[in-house]
């Protein structure tokens, strides 16, 4: 029986094929190499402290989130002004109500690096993300055979972008490192079981190389959550749903940024 995750991937593959019918791979590849260079997201993630990555998320089928965000430019500007070091856009269309055009809109609005948060399974999407202005992309180890993961990561780097290689267990983390990942994101949320386990990061992060940037992907709703992740070695956290649900996303973002830069934060020392 197909899971939600399986259905999302099937939809992504179908949508990519439809877009490639309109703009062939050769053309999107050409277009992707004729845009301004990517912003240096890796250097941003390597700065002292625990970086806050603000994700613009209109919907989430796992948590039944339906966001009130309509003006992505205004929301991105608010997050950057509140101290977020990277702005992410969930671009999957069918279940998350995302759009690649959001990446371009945000890129034209903020100075921070922009993350294309999607389900990338094909080289076409890497060039597509770069064309729309992405500086980072997401690569989920669970969705990719090892050869495809290596090839996609190499393509991402060749275009001057960075990838947050998303993992859910030690085996996937090992695969990500072997593929050449410089940034590993540990997802506390299981899309198949729809459960959240914040302890997952603490069980995986210590086994990662010291020079790899470590990102906690889910479960941050307060400065307390950020500090716990930082205490387990997180260099950055992704905050999406909490910002979308908050009545004062700027206040929440500022409080998280302050916690990530506080002297008591382990990664700020």
From TrEMBL:
Pathway: Amino-acid biosynthesis; L-tryptophan biosynthesis; L-tryptophan from chorismate: step 4/5. Residues 6-255 form the Indole-3-glycerol phosphate synthase domain. GO terms for molecular function: indole-3-glycerol-phosphate synthase activity; phosphoribosylanthranilate isomerase activity. Keywords: Amino-acid biosynthesis, Aromatic amino acid biosynthesis, Decarboxylase, Lyase, Tryptophan biosynthesis. Signal peptide: none annotated. InterPro entries: Aldolase_TIM, Indole-3-glycerol_P_synth, Indole-3-glycerol_P_synth_dom, RibuloseP-bd_barrel. The keyword Hydrolase does not apply. The keyword ATP-binding does not apply. SUPFAM superfamilies: Ribulose-phoshate binding barrel. It is an enzyme of class 4 (lyase). It catalyses: 1-(2-carboxyphenylamino)-1-deoxy-D-ribulose 5-phosphate + H(+) = (1S,2R)-1-C-(indol-3-yl)glycerol 3-phosphate + CO2 + H2O. One of its GO terms (biological process) is L-tryptophan biosynthetic process. Its EC number is 4.1.1.48. This is indole-3-glycerol-phosphate synthase. It comes from Corynebacterium pyruviciproducens ATCC BAA-1742.
């Amino acid at each position: 029986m197909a899971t939600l995750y399986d259905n999302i991937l099937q939809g992504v593959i179908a949508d990519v094929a439809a877009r490639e019918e309109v703009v062939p791979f050769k053309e999107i590849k050409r277009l992707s190499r004729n845009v301004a260079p990517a912003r240096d997201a890796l250097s941003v993630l390597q700065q002292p402290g625990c970086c806050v990555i603000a994700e613009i998320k209109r919907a989430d089928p796992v948590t039944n989130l339906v966001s009130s965000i309509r003006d992505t430019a205004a929301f991105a500007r608010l997050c950057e002004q509140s101290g977020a070091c990277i702005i992410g856009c969930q671009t999957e269309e069918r279940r998350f109500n995302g759009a690649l055009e959001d990446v371009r809109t945000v890129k034209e609005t903020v100075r921070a690096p922009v993350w294309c948060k999607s389900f990338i399974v094909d080289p076409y999407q890497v060039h597509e993300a770069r064309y729309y202005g992405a500086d980072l992309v997401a690569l989920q180890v669970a969705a990719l055979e090892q050869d495809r993961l290596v090839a996609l990561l190499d393509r991402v780097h060749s275009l001057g972008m960075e990838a947050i290689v998303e993992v859910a267990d030690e085996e996937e983390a090992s695969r990500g490192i072997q593929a050449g990942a410089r940034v590993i994101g540990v997802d506390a949320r299981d899309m198949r079981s729809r459960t959240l386990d914040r302890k997952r990061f603490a069980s995986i992060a210590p086994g990662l190389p010291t020079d790899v940037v470590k990102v906690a992907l889910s479960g941050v709703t307060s400065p307390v959550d950020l500090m716990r992740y930082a205490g387990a070695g997180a260099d950055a956290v992704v905050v999406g749903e909490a910002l979308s649900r908050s009545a004062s996303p700027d206040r929440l973002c500022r409080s998280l940024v302050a916690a990530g830069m506080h002297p008591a934060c382990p990664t700020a020392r």
